[in-house]
Amino acid sequence: MKLPVEHTDRRQFIRRALTAAAGGALALWLPKTSAYAMQTAEQQFRISVCDWMILKRQKLSAFDLAKDIASDGVEVDMGGLGNRETFDSKLGDATARQQFLDKSKESNVAISSIAMSGFYAQSFAEREGVPRMVQDCIDTMKAMNVTVSFLPLGVKGDLVQYPNLRPAIVERLKAIAPQAEKAGVIIGLETALDARGEAKLLDEVGSSAIRSYFNFANALQAGRSVEKELKTLGKDRICQIHCTDTDGVWLENNTRLDLKSVRKTLDRMHWSGWLVVERSRDAKDPRNVKWNFGANVKYLKSVFQA
User: Fold this and answer.
1) Is residue 28 part of a domain?
2) Using CA atoms, how far apart are residues 276 and 233, in angstroms rounded to an integer?
3) Distance CA 207, CA 177 (A)
4) Distance, C-alpha 253 to centroid of its chain
5) pTM
6) Taking the CA atoms of the chain, what radius of gyration do you get in angstroms?
7) How many CB atoms lie within 10 A of CB 5?
């Protein structure tokens, strides 16, 4: 399926992608474009940070901190899961949602995506109540005009260690795909699979509303080339990127990640979108948020916005 080369008009891009996936038969609901929630036509790459990693999970002050470190956006988390029926989220309340939207506009810091990081410690294949949890996220995205969500399959959903969970994961992804399609949003998966395996998984699910939320760290930890993995997946399968590695050193000091080469690869792929910093904190002072994330945002901008 061929999709547009540039993601400059997110509504048009999602409409074409999802209409193509449904053979042109679907009438789609699409959120209104928000200057604070969506990528601008002029900027190929924008830089964001995860609110839970800057120690501001679902806090309005995440926008002020993001502005202080010159980040273009914040990936807002849905909150913890634990043994709850759904996420511990403020965003189900209309008043709270509006406060976040107002703060985003006031600070000129976009909401790049909504994260379901609570699944890091859960089994997406086995946990009861998954349909409601994902639907709550989709409803939040619709209400906040955010196009992309982040869904990690997590340690307990690692298909490398637990390949027996694959049928259940595919079944659940196929079940939630129509809701995402109807809402005009994309759910981005992070898996432990290599790019070939992840592409096969996505193709089996068969919906352009379910894509890859690529994380450099997964490839690097497994000794794989980030550039080759990106090319194998292809631009149409990648919705967003966690432009990060495990903690230890800043991105600019990371000898196993050549971001200038990555930039060239993404340019050749004609991919554009959000690059979101999750980790890559210096081991000397990992809890110094401004120091770590400020340095990483600055370096990413020097590479991807020069």
Assistant:
1) no
2) 18
3) 6
4) 24
5) 0.86
6) 18
7) 12
